[in-house]
Amino acid sequence: MGNYKSSTKAIYSLILVLVWILFSSAQAQQIWRTCVKVIDGDTIVLDGNEKVRLIGIDTPETKDPRKPVQYYGREAYEFTKRLVEGKKVRLIYDLNKKDKYGRTLAYVYLENGTFLNAEVVKQGYGLAYRYFLFKYFNEFKQYEREAQANEIGLWSDGRGEEPQAARENDSDIVYITRTGQKYHKEGCGSLRRSKIPIFLYEACKRRYAPCSNCDPLECE
């Protein structure tokens, strides 16, 4: 009888621990932060001076000292600023939480449910990012096509950048690591610590070399 009571108590304790873990996880997903500044159409700053790069989108440059302000860059900046500056947001992450510049990579949601990353592309203020795969890759490409078809935002007078046909049709995916200079096939032992999907053409463009161990597809 004593053993039964001990077992029952242990089970109840385990259940309580699991409930607490799930509750804590849910709470972590709902942490709201304030956007204190917008840097450009795809980069914002949160309280605590945390820079956040919106995953999956690319807006015209306005802040790169090496480049002039690009067409529709100011409009993209104003759009993002109008939507998010001074407002509460929560972040959802993808495979990688930081980029090489130390910025947080995230999907950004407002309290009213607006998905900021998607909205920028939907309204024609940015392009779907094509260099790396991400969770909403196909959806963002579709939003871009719809914005172009409807001639809104940077597509309104035909000056928007057309995605290269080769990029649209390229389906060869390889993997790189956070610090390495080679690209790999799925399952390569070199991908144990980090694994970033990338299109083969982009890996070649960035001068990554094929891994000699897993023998991935070669650059043409």
Break the fold down into its secondary structure elements and pairings.
Layout (H helix, E strand, L loop, with lengths): L1 H28 L3 E8 L2 E4 L3 E5 L2 E2 L14 H12 L3 E5 L11 E7 L5 H7 L4 E2 L8 H13 L15 H5 L3 E4 L5 E2 L12 E4 H6 L3 E2 L10
Parallel strand pairs: 3-6, 9-11
Antiparallel strand pairs: 1-2, 1-5, 2-3, 4-7, 5-6, 8-10
Q: Can you describe this structure in just a few lines?
A:
The chain has 220 residues and is an alpha+beta fold. Helices cover 32% and strands 20% of the residues. It is globular.
Describe the structure.
It comes from marine sediment metagenome. It holds the Pfam family SNase. This protein is of the alpha+beta class and 220 residues long. It folds into 2 domains: 33-163, OB fold (Dihydrolipoamide Acetyltransferase, E2P) (Beta Barrel), CATH 2.40.50; 169-210, no CATH class. It is built from 6 helices and 11 strands. It has helices spanning 2-29, 73-84, 116-122, 137-149, 165-169, 200-205, and strands at residues 33-40, 43-46, 50-54, 57-58, 88-92, 104-110, 127-128, 173-176, 182-183, 196-199, 209-210. A hairpin with a 2-residue loop joins β1 and β2 (43-46).
